[in-house]
Amino acid sequence: MTTIENPVRTEAEWLATARDVAAKLAVDAVERDRANQTPHREVRLLKDSGLVTLLGPPEHGGGGQSWETAYRVTREVARADGSIGQLLGYHYLWAWAARLVATDEQIAAVEELYTTNKLFFGGAVNPRDSDLTITDEGDEIVYNGHKSFSTGSKVSDLTVLEGVLSGTEDHIFAIVPSEQDGIVFRDDWDNIGQRLTESGGVSITGVRVPWASAAGYVGKVFRPLTYNTLNVPAIQLVFTNFYLGIAQGALETALAYTRERTRPWPYGGDDKASAAEEWYILDAYGDLQAKLWAVEALTDKAGAAISAVLHAPREDLTPAVRGEIAVLIAAAKQRAIDVGLEVSTKIFELTGARASASQYGFDRFWRNLRTHSLHDPVAYKRREVGAYALLNEVPEPTWYT
């Protein structure tokens, strides 16, 4: 076992680090979005800052922080660059994948490996695709197939694979090195938003994994816990936090532009010396800020709730508690999407016609939110909250709930 001395950082210090990283990303965010290049430099910044090991064990050089902190760090980074915020948030979820489903021995091995070496995670786990096929070859299992999305692909060091064992309905997760002949990233991510997330397709051919590394399997048998199903609400709250971060970044950017550049309207009969005195601008910014504060409060409440159970003994989680947390996250997610889309559209009315120039890149906030918020229909999140409010029903765990 490798032990690394690492200065202990408080939550406040980690958040300060995230803000420092965000400030660096903000400098050329517009240009990098337009260039749409693989974000090797950006991921190196996340590694060098230590943010990739925030959840890792302190004895291996990790931060030993809670998920509450991880969510807030994700949000801070997304204020400057939604793509990099998404990459970091997904990394945190996949770095926790072993804790979600693996054995104690597997957890210890994975966490030492990624924390000691500051490795970055990607994942080929898209449940809407036909699952990867897994064949049992004695002491090994072999993955073959395709996935349409593999976020983090070419910037990842490790990839989480998921597939179904041939002849069964058993799903098996495994963590494998990203750089190997059997994994070919298609480099076909060319969407209007979240352009730097490396979320293109992947082909998996003959990727071999020892049965001993099949997450949570002992003697080729998996023993399920309710805790295993936290992967979906945990990543849904990752989504919520980088949606909120994108919206906060949009508002902050627009406020700065209005202070510095927006001109008052001279034909309304109530002439003002500056745009910052215009009543309709003050009214609209006040409305948007209040809505974002409300989303932040709900999101933080959800973060505290799921963090408490993610860090508790796995056997303690009940389906009822899990369901109530999922409903809270569904509520936060729908609010983050609706308010975020409103903010990223309304800012053009408040900044003025000249702010639509491509050099300012204000459109990236809407493009980023609109693109990823289509991940799964938000109407189903509203229905989950409605069923809880009206019928006292909690959602059954699925790949999207």
Automatic annotation (TrEMBL):
Residues 238-375 form the Acyl-CoA dehydrogenase C-terminal domain. One of its GO terms (molecular function) is monooxygenase activity. Signal peptide: none annotated. Residues 13-107 form the Acyl-CoA dehydrogenase/oxidase N-terminal domain. The keyword Lyase does not apply. Gene3D superfamilies: Acyl-CoA dehydrogenase/oxidase, N-terminal domain (1.10.540.10), Butyryl-CoA Dehydrogenase, subunit A, domain 2 (2.40.110.10), Butyryl-CoA Dehydrogenase, subunit A, domain 3 (1.20.140.10). SUPFAM superfamilies: Acyl-CoA dehydrogenase C-terminal domain-like (SSF47203), Acyl-CoA dehydrogenase NM domain-like (SSF56645). Keywords: Monooxygenase, Oxidoreductase. This is Monooxygenase. It comes from Amycolatopsis minnesotensis. The lineage of its organism: Bacteria, Bacillati, Actinomycetota, Actinomycetes, Pseudonocardiales.
